[in-house]
Amino acid sequence: QVQLLESGGDLVQTGGSLRLSCAASGNIFSINAMGWYRQSPGKQRELVATITTGGSTNYADSVKGRFAISRDNAKNTVYLQMNSLKPEDTAVYYCNAEVIRGAPYWKSNYWGQGTQVTVSS
Predict the structure, then answer these.
(1) What gap in Å lies between CA 83 and CA 41, rounded to an integer?
(2) What DSSP letter does each residue of 38-63 carry, written as one string?
(3) Alpha carbon 103 to chain centroid distance?
(4) Radius of gyration of the chain (CA)
(5) CA 99 from centre of chain
(6) How do 107-111 and 46-51 pair as beta strands?
(7) Contact 37, 114 (CB under 8 A)
(8) DSSP per position, the chain
(9) d(CA 31, CA 14)
(10) How far apart are CA 76 and CA 23, in angstroms?
(11) CA dihedral 77, 66, 60, 73 (to 10 degrees)
């Protein structure tokens, strides 16, 4: 009923930039927090950045100063601007959203399908 559709993953060189987008659609009444997570093979999925409806943000220490999360509430979309990319940023990036669905207004977390970001050295 609710889907998160991601885009923007690509192969880039060290120092390059990418912008990831994630648009939520379906039976949505409202969306609370949204965030980006990433996972490399053999590793646990880790938080990259989160943003509340009001715009408060949190970042993993490894991306502070390089990544910026933002959202467009009118479009139910969250973005991740990634600058000064490093090989260690290589991972599958996943979008997450806490969604309040239409009546009966139940709240659930949803995940996107993931988008591959590869940074070459």
Answers:
(1) 23
(2) EE-TTS--EEEEEE-TT--EEE-GGG
(3) 26
(4) 14
(5) 14
(6) unpaired
(7) no
(8) -EEEEEE---EEETT--EEEEEEEEESEEEEEEEEEEEE-TTS--EEEEEE-TT--EEE-GGGTTTEEEEEEGGGTEEEEEE-S--GGG-EEEEEEEEEEESTTT-EEEEE---EEEEEE-
(9) 34
(10) 6
(11) -20
For 75, the token pair is 């479009």
Tens of each residue's pLDDT in the chain, 121 residues: 899 999 999 999 999 999 999 999 999 999 999 999 999 988 999 999 999 999 999 999 999 999 999 999 999 999 999 999 999 999 999 999 999 999 999 999 999 999 999 999 9
**What do you get for the CA distance between the two ends of the chain, in Å?**
40
- In this structure, are strands 18-26 and 77-82 parallel, antiparallel, or unpaired? antiparallel
The single-letter code of the amino acid at 85 is L
Looking at residue 69, its amino acid is: I
Amino acid letter, residue 57: T
